[in-house]
Design a protein that fits this description.
Radius of gyration: 18 Å
Strand order of the largest sheet: 1-2-6-5
CATH class: Alpha Beta
Order of helices and strands: EHEEEHHHHHHEE
CATH superfamily: Glycosidases
Shape: globular
Structural class: alpha+beta
Length: 242
């Protein structure tokens, strides 16, 4: 058996947002298997990156090895996108076009800023509770809540360096976290839109005929299968860093 290896962020297409994404991966797997007879596509780890700029360039130094990175989502493939007003869809299409037109080095910060804006807009128009999402939250439990809260605090403080945070925010059970509704509200968004749920669900349903299989710290996509395995779990950021 033979196949391709690729750094997914570099597999850009005429429709991605300036950075290779899960749709590009699915297209590559479909094309290489169907047209060339390839048996797999091996890509870099897709774990969560920093929730604030600067977004790290290396996929081998993630913020979490348990949850996937929303950077790799194709925004238009998310079902909530169709519910957005036409004016919002046109605005995001223009954002995406601008990112595609850029030359030079990949601008992860700009891509994340644009996708985060789209995710926030879609989350604001979310429908009734999705039972699959509720099951995901139940299954991931405290680890998801801890990671989402950590992302929320990082966004507000503008850095993932907990040593630069106020002392009352450095632990998951510190009063500054527990008693602040704004963190709970932002964490709910993070877990539902830019945390593990969207990345996991879109990754598992990237395309019929491909399958994601954990392989060490990378991911192998095979053709001829109907489902995809989730990323191997490890740990979320600690409740009390240090």
């Amino acid at each position: 058996m033979w196949g391709f290896t690729a750094q997914l962020y570099s597999v850009r297409s005429a429709a991605s947002w300036g950075l290779g994404d899960l749709r590009d991966l699915a297209d590559l797997a479909d094309w290489s298997g169907r047209e060339l007879g390839a048996g797999f596509v091996l890509v870099n780890p897709l774990h969560a990156t920093e929730p604030v700029a600067p977004v790290g360039a290396s996929p081998y130094s993630p913020m979490s090895r348990r949850f996937p990175s929303p950077l790799y989502l194709r925004i238009e493939d998310m079902p909530e996108y169709a519910d957005l007003p036409a004016a919002d869809r046109e605005r995001f299409a223009a954002l995406a076009a601008g990112l595609r037109a850029r030359e030079g080095l990949l601008d992860r910060d700009a891509v994340w800023a644009a996708k985060l804006e789209a995710l926030e807009a879609m989350y604001g128009r979310r429908r009734d509770r999705d039972p699959r999402f509720e099951e995901f939250r139940r299954r991931e439990g405290a680890a998801l809540a801890s990671f989402a809260t950590w992302c929320a605090i990082s966004e507000e403080q503008g850095t993932t360096d907990w040593r630069r945070w106020p002392s009352g925010l450095r632990g998951a059970h510190d009063h500054g976290v527990v008693d602040a509704p704004r963190y709970h509200a932002r964490a709910a968004f993070t877990s539902g839109s830019s945390g593990g749920w969207t990345g996991s669900s879109r990754r598992r349903s990237a395309r019929p005929g491909t399958r994601g299989c954990p392989s060490g710290s990378s991911t192998t996509w095979r053709s001829g299968c109907r489902t995809a395995a989730p990323t191997p779990g490890c740990t979320a950021p600690p409740a009390r860093p240090g």
